[in-house]
Amino acid sequence: MTAPLTNWARNVEYRPAVLVSPRSVEELRDALAGTTKAKVRGSGHSFNRIADTDGSLISLGAMPSAVEIDHGRRIARVPGGLRYGDVVREIDAAGFAVPNLASLPHISVAGAVATGTHGSGDRVSPLSGAVAAVELMTAGGELRTIRRGDDDFAGAVISLGALGVVVAVELDLVDTFRVAQTVFERVPVDAVLADLGAVTTLGYSTSIFTTWRNPDVFDQVWVKCRAGEASVLPGSLLGGTAATSPLHPLPGVSAEACTPQLGEPGPWFERLPHFLLEFTPSAGDELQSEYFVDRRDAPAALQALRGIADQIAPLLQIAETRTMAGEAQWLSPTLGADTVAFHFTWVADQRAVEALLPTVERALAPFGARPHWGKLFAMEGDELAALYPDAQRFRDLRERLDPRDVFANAFLERVGLA
Ligand SMILES: Cc1cc2nc3c(=O)[nH]c(=O)nc-3n(C[C@H](O)[C@H](O)[C@H](O)COP(=O)(O)OP(=O)(O)OC[C@H]3O[C@@H](n4cnc5c(N)ncnc54)[C@H](O)[C@@H]3O)c2cc1C
To answer: Where does the UniProt annotation place the signal sequence (predicted)?
Structure first.
């Protein structure tokens, strides 16, 4: 008996009628012609049923995988089946970089941008912000390229996989850069709440980690500075001290899988993620949730989380606070405002985590918190759609591109978008 196909965390077992692995655009078109329901599975790193279908589950792993770099336009065309880790070295070798990366390079580019996946950085938007165009095959087999500037573009990048098969994405490139990361330990929460900006502006990208076991101290603050900025980093941060050996965000875990620290400069793609491509970060024994609020509300929202720290801590492996610049995608969790995101890596006890999520959401409700599309959350339907002023525009776009509801699934119905 073959093992069931699951997501990375193994908390979702996909239930397709058939698995499809086209080797060309023509085979993809044929596969879509013969199905009434379909979904693409990217790298399977989402924690909910967003990628599930009872029809055809499509893998793009056998499709042509050549990355095309246009030096003049400063664009990389990345096929829909590739992961960030598959493309970053080639982009770097051509003298370029992408502006930001998520915590790990193992995720597919198309799947990550489809869910609003992000890294951290006050002035850097989620990964969707670096997308210049998506090449989409609709359920009817038509190939459409939707570019920045087109009417549909603001609905087409963070698409939740609901508009069609993304055959390729075009990514904006910037000049390659080097980054050095320094980790500070035991930074007092009160000092951070009094001046969050002092922390988040310290580097190009910062992450604040806590187990919430001690509600007065953030265990670690990771500061990633572009080369040149690193030399001005102090040895202490608001009372916390710079670590003298490499650390893993999880207390007591070896830092072997983590990107180099201690201020040692290196290429952007080996510093912006927390984890190295060569290692599988943990074994999937975790669940994740994340909520986004307007950055102006960040201190009050963190204080609200601190108020329920005793309920969060028993189920928490680690929490991470990151910042992002706002963007215009209709379904972006950063739509309309610079944003802070509160991430939770939970223990792998889904029932207990799901029982806690309404408490977390109530604490963050005064700040209009939007959940990460690819992680676990409790809110649904109108409550969720109300957080997105352009939800109806997205529904209209979906109806136009997918009138037979081929890419709709139970997840999309649950979140009020189908
Ligand atoms: C260990 C770990 C660390 C993570 N770190 C971060 C982080 O730092 N920041 C963050 O924001 N998130 C993070 N995530 C969440 C993750 O980035 C998202 O869940 C993201 O969607 C993963 O991409 P994927 O390809 O695995 O998506 P999947 O789960 O495979 O798919 C997600 C959605 O995209 C659609 N899709 C995928 N490929 C295509 C395609 N080619 N065409 C059309 N639709 C497609 C699917 O149908 C589905 O709707 C993390 C997850 C894990 C497991």
So the answer is: none
Q: How many CA atoms lie within 13 A of 184 on its CB side?
A: 26
Q: Ligand 1 pocket by C-beta < 6 Å: which residues?
A: 8, 39-46, 50-51, 60, 80, 102-104, 107-108, 110-112, 114-115, 117-118, 160-161, 165-166, 281, 288, 372, 374
Could you report the per-residue pLDDT of 198-256, keeping only the tens digit for each?
999 999 999 999 999 999 999 999 999 998 776 668 889 999 999 999 999 998 999 99
Atom 40 (ligand 1): residue with closest C-alpha? 166
Q: How far is the CA of 108 from the centre of ligand 1 (A)?
A: 7
- The closest-lying atom of ligand 1 relative to the alpha carbon of residue 375 is 19
Residue 283: predicted pLDDT: 54
CA of 107 to the centre of ligand 1 (A): 6
Under the banding of pLDDT at 50, 70 and 90, the label for residue 2 is: low
> Fold for domain 178-371?
Alpha-Beta Plaits (3.30.70)
Atom 10 (ligand 1) nearest CA: 117
46: which residues sit within 8 A by CB, 6+ positions away?
A: 7, 12, 111, 115, 373, 374, 375
**What CATH code would you report for 68-176?**
3.30.465.10
Contact 157, 197 (CB under 8 A): no
Instruction: Please write the tens of the pLDDT for every residue from 324-362.
Output: 999 999 999 999 999 999 999 999 999 999 999 999 999
CA 142/CA 128 separation, integer angstroms = 23
Residues of the chain with CATH 3.30.70.2520: 178-371
* pLDDT tops 80 at residue 125: yes
In whole angstroms, give the CA distance from residue 242 to residue 94.
34
> What separation in Å is there between the alpha carbon of 116 and the centre of ligand 1?
9
Which ranges in 125-270 belong to alpha helices (H)?
153-156, 189-194, 196-200
Give, using CA atoms, the residue closest to atom 5 of ligand 1. 103
In one-letter notation, the amino acid at residue 155 is G
